[in-house]
Specification:
This protein is α/β, with parallel strands linked by helices. Helix content is 39%, strand content 26%.
Length: 239
């Protein structure tokens, strides 16, 4: 009887504590994982998992979508702030408290316009002679810089994927980096045929990075641990 009462009291205290915490959740537009629907709500496969955990822990929260560089800045500077879907890369590992894996690995490719027959490359060294459009602060931006690409020389840095693909169709850049699903979704948003793009190379080293959630460093460790435990249970249930 004593143990039951003690467990009840601990559970009640935990519930009250969680009820007082508000989680600021930030993300970006990345189909099909996190994106706005027609009502302006953030939805998607990753969003569903994040919401499931937040609801399970009975936490108050808001989810907002920003350009990726701004989402990263907010997540690093504020308490009780969660960012997703975020690749865990060597450049980021010390900047957050990580909760992985939120999603299985996805293949990331270099794309070109199908009619750009002049672009013939077999590796990233050859791509350095051309221009890739990249989303500012994105993990692919970090990866390409780590292998020798430079902004203003062979990297065209933009604020969003939509800007990048528009530049591609205007022939202002030569390549862009995307997953196949997201590339097709971007084409649909522009009313372009899905065969408008051609995959050139898979960025294999980059594709191997885990896709995660991450809390700001100033977020309480016990809250982070609760998230880790709930994600572990959720991933086990969905196997």
């Amino acid at each position: 009887m004593y143990k039951f009462i003690l467990a009840f009291v601990v559970g009640l205290l935990s519930f009250n504590l969680n009820a007082q915490i508000h989680i600021n959740v930030v993300t970006e537009q990345w189909y099909p994982y996190n994106y706005h629907n027609q009502k302006g709500q953030v939805i998607g496969r990753a969003t569903d998992k994040v919401k499931t955990i937040l609801d399970k822990l009975k936490l108050s929260y808001t989810i907002k979508s920003y350009p990726w560089a701004r989402a990263m800045m907010i997540a690093q500077k504020n308490d009780n702030t969660l960012i997703y879907s975020i690749f865990k890369t060597p450049e980021r590992v010390d900047k957050f408290q990580w909760i992985c894996p939120l999603l299985p690995p996805v293949k990331v490719y270099l794309f070109k316009l199908k009619n750009r027959y002049d672009l013939k490359v077999n590796n990233l060294e050859q791509v350095k002679q051309h221009t890739i459009s990249i989303n500012r602060g994105d993990s692919s931006h970090e990866y390409l810089r780590s292998v020798g690409f430079e902004s203003g020389i062979n990297l065209d840095v933009t604020s969003s994927d939509e800007v990048s693909i528009n530049k591609l169709f205007l022939n202002r850049v030569d390549f862009l980096v995307q997953t196949e699903f997201t590339a097709n979704q971007l084409l649909r948003s522009l009313n372009k045929p899905e065969n408008s793009l051609t995959k050139v190379l898979e960025l294999k080293n980059y594709s191997n990075n885990a896709i995660c959630m991450a809390f700001s460093l100033t977020t309480d460790q016990s809250l982070v641990n609760n998230f880790k435990n709930e994600l572990l249970k959720l991933n086990h249930q969905r196997k």
